[in-house]
Amino acid sequence: MRRAMMVAAVLLVCGGVVLSAAVKKYGKPLTLKETTKISAIFAQPDSFNGKRVKVQGPIVDVCEMKGCWIAIASDKEFQSIRFKVDDGVIVFPMTAKGLTAKVEGVVTVSTLSEEEQIAQGKEMEKEMKKPFDPKTVKGPKTVIMIKGEAAEIE
């Protein structure tokens, strides 16, 4: 009987640890009930600009320098959206890559000139340690991302 109680206590403690570790929360709590498809944001970016959304998907990339952003895959192939937070406010671990994120924030849509893209490309080259060729930049580019406030990763 005593052994059975000890085993039950150990299972309860271990089960509690596993459950509490299953979802890691960052920033503010999620508040929105409805999840928006990332593909819907890409299909009509101007209608989402400045609006608060909650999106969900697998994390395909993480900022290697400061952990200040994650890229979340869309429900459509070859699409992902960057979820960017203020440096130091939230720090995403590199181990988040491959996990699933539910995130909430405000959509921002901007157009970058060639010069801005080249400057950003050089910064990303340092950050991601991947080569950047400025000759690949051709004309202005629309950038869609989410200014992050809340995240849950599991």
Would you write up a description of this structure?
This protein is of the alpha+beta class and 154 residues long. The protein has one domain: Nucleic acid-binding proteins (OB fold (Dihydrolipoamide Acetyltransferase, E2P)), CATH 2.40.50.140. The chain has four helices and six strands; from the N terminus they run αβααββββαβ. It has helices at 2-22, 38-43, 45-48, 114-128; strands at residues 24-27, 52-62, 69-73, 80-84, 100-112, 141-153. The protein has a five-stranded mixed barrel. It is globular and about 45 Å long. Residues 4-20 have low confidence and may be disordered.
Protein structure class: alpha+beta
**Average pLDDT rating:** 87
Q: Count of DSSP helices?
A: 4
Under the CATH scheme, the architecture is Beta Barrel
The CATH superfamily bears the name: Nucleic acid-binding proteins
CATH class: Mainly Beta
Give a summary of the structure in a few sentences.
The chain has helices spanning 2-22, 38-43, 45-48, 114-128, and strands spanning 24-27, 52-62, 69-73, 80-84, 100-112, 141-153. The protein is an alpha+beta fold. It has a single domain (24-153), classed as OB fold (Dihydrolipoamide Acetyltransferase, E2P), CATH 2.40.50.140.
SSE topology sketch:
Blueprint: H1 2-22, E1 24-27, H2 38-43, H3 45-48, E2 52-62, E3 69-73, E4 80-84, E5 100-112, H4 114-128, E6 141-153
Parallel strand pairs: 4-6
Antiparallel strand pairs: 1-6, 2-3, 2-5, 3-4, 5-6
